[in-house]
Amino acid sequence: MLTQTPTPVNEEALKVRVEDVQLDITFEQLKRLVSPRALTGETMLMNMGPQHPSTHGVLRLLLELDGETIVNCIPDIGYLHTGIEKTAESKTYLKVIPLTDRTDYLAPMSNNMAFCGAVEKLVGIEVPLRAQYLRVILLELTRMNSHLVWLGTHALDIGAMSVFLYCMREREMILDIYEAVSGARMMSSYIRPGGLWRDVPTVFFDLVRRVLDVFPKRLIEYEKLLTKNPMWKDRTVGIGKISAQDAIAWGMTGPCLRATGVKYDVRKAYPYSSYDHFDFDIPTGTNGDVFDRYKCRMEEFNQSLKIIRQALDRLPPGPVMTSDRKVAPPPKHEIAYSMESLIHHFKLWTEGFKAPEGEVYFAVESGKGEYGVLLSGDGSSKPRRVHFRAPSFHNLQPINELARGHLLADLVAIIGSIDIVLGDVDR
Amino acid sequence: MGLEQKLGDLGIVTTTLERAVGWARTRAMWPLLFGLACCAIEMMSTQASRYDLSRFGMELMRASPRQSDLMIVAGRVSRKMAPVLRQLYDQMPDPKWVIAMGDCASCGGVFNNYAIVQGVDEIVPVDVYVAGCPPRPETLIDGIMKLHEKVRQEPLKKWQ
Questions:
Q1: By the CB < 8 Å criterion, does B111 face chain A?
Q2: Using CB atoms within 10 A as the burial measure, which of A204, A234, A294, B51 is most buried?
Q3: Does the pLDDT value for residue A396 go beyond 70?
Q4: Helix (H, G, I), strand (E, B) or coil at A161
């Protein structure tokens, strides 16, 4: 039998390797992150990112590898730190909305909704029912938009390129709807405190009906390509498992948490924007692996379509903006003859409306999980502090637990399955 | 002009080497697969089904800077990312070009704060600026066409 003598720790050699990976931490800090085997040179330290095709942006991972097996996976974030939370403090409540678009840029409407919901809660604004229903339609379309990019890139990472092209094709249908309502393909800023920017144009209904008609067939197409595909199953079943307790302890939400069997959805637990008026299920998984996360999201497509269908059929007539002129701009034609409207208009666009002192938390279920906004007002027209509880950040946290023991190639599948957006992680 | 008329239709075109090389360079530019933020999603849309960048021989995004000649800086560049971006640019072989896609890469956009580099031209030379937040795929394609025009007119000796 071959007996191995333990290799002595060669600190000098390791220090050179620390310089190789170019981390902004000291050698002592690195020693706490990697296993003792890295100190003897038994395992290898390797960089992945920030420029890497399958890190979904600029995520950087420091990998400790034993051959091809991952021993430790240490995320290094901040490559897309934009200072959105700090910038928001110097803007009026209305002007923060475009910044929220750019946090999780795959689900702009969900972010708008979370922020506007927080402002509405702080100021105490009632939103008309038509606006609430339209919001629900748009939020569900946003969820589908987010999931489509997830499915496309996730499949592309694992090697199914055609799925990516199909998903982007379907995504264009949703972007057409965005463009029709807000004028922009991605950064909509359409949801405003008190309702919506304007009522939807008539073409909106045709476009949404088209999605409802076309999408179920396309969904079957994706399922045919992937769900029973043995190659897809080889790459996803049993990979990146996490238990329900661990997932809760790490703060995971959204499909990642539901894949472990926990039936938590903000839309059901703390309904907002009249989600309690609609009938839908929360799909859950059992194993909490990459395949279950995939199954959960695929089922969410169906549930989203179900909600949109209900909201579209029951859409009430009426205004889409609250009548409270302290927060809602007056209609353009009124400005011509009403002095008071003119003053309101001027005050709103120069100074903005004032919010009372206080602190509120408002969360929505975005495509990635619980997207929350902690808003603190100080009585002025600008927030004292805005904090975004970004689902991607919390879902990224357990990456070490998810990846440990798997092969390097499986890491790509794991990153894809937790569906992170770096704009959301770094903000 | 004169030569083709004298010889008849022999399938021969006379041109200068500069113009031939410039034309060849525009036919198969390989962009670096380098998405930063929101604009990267529009860049993906540009490559994907509806806008189909392969019409211009550019659908092949290279993940390695050493195999690419065009860097599309798609998104905001944070101060932490700036040295990485410069390193990638240095790793690209000559001749190379840069498109600053979107307002953030062009001038900082809506983010005039401590975290964002106010225009990527502070770190790398930029050939074409594409406006928009994010630019529509049509706008990006227009920017690429502008770059092609520019490349076709570049003299040969510019690259050492």
A1: yes
A2: A294
A3: yes
A4: helix
